[in-house]
Amino acid sequence: MHFTEPVYRNPYxxxxxxxxxxxxxxxxxxxxxxxxxxxxxxxxxxEDIEADLAELRTMVxxxxxxxxxxxxxxALPYSRLKPILEKINEYLPDMEYVYTAxxxxxxxxKTVEQLRELKELGLREVSLGVESGDDWTLDRxxxxxxxxxxxxxxxxxxxxxxxxxxSFLNGVAGRSHSRDHAIHSAEIFSQCKPMLVGTGGLTxxxxxxxxxxxxxxxxxxxxxxxxxxxxxxxxENLTCDCKFITHHTIGGDNLSGPNFLARKDDIISSLRDxxxxxxxxxxxxxxxxxxxx
Length: 293
Hints:
With 293 residues, the chain is an alpha/beta fold. It is built from ten helices and nine strands.
């Protein structure tokens, strides 16, 4: 199997088999991220992909799911993705679900009809690292798109019938813009109606521009209490029914799960309890000790 280090995969999807079709991230400029620093974006050759699929056929001949790597394979144009999905079905004929991560901008070069065809070939779920629905915040951390782009491109996925996830990065706007980040993100996410909303708490990793800006007094990171208060505000304003999960955010044990709207009051209650009674010093120490995702 061909894999480029470091290997990141979505732990909420089936974690095997994996198939690398790209390496790194096309953007690789987000101020908070270290995932693919030093990794040049590259496209795996169809010969390598076929060799990996032949190997997978000997190991898991009846595989029904597969997760495509790496950072944003969805960046490949339709003309490159279609033959890859066809090869997956050729080598693994029981295939039902193809999962992949992507950026909002990866959808700009694809029509709804093309996305429908990719779905027919197995592309069923896409995880989008959206992070915010607030334009100021998106510009501040160099995401490379705005809220109107999120709405337009996610609308294509909805029209094509492809399920998608959206992530909210708790704390990434800093203290000065926390409220707008939370409220505007909840508004945009609610409008897009993803099948899943995931939240993660910002950690300022070594080597990131955002840490350097914080050290220079140019970024005002939130305390653990303020992180939870921002997450609470996001949850209070989120109105789409979805699966809701938290990752990299220390908090109550019952926050994650399906049927968000039915559980919303309980989630809010748990977050308020964490704000008032949680061991915030321990949470802060855990976050400080993280060095990478």
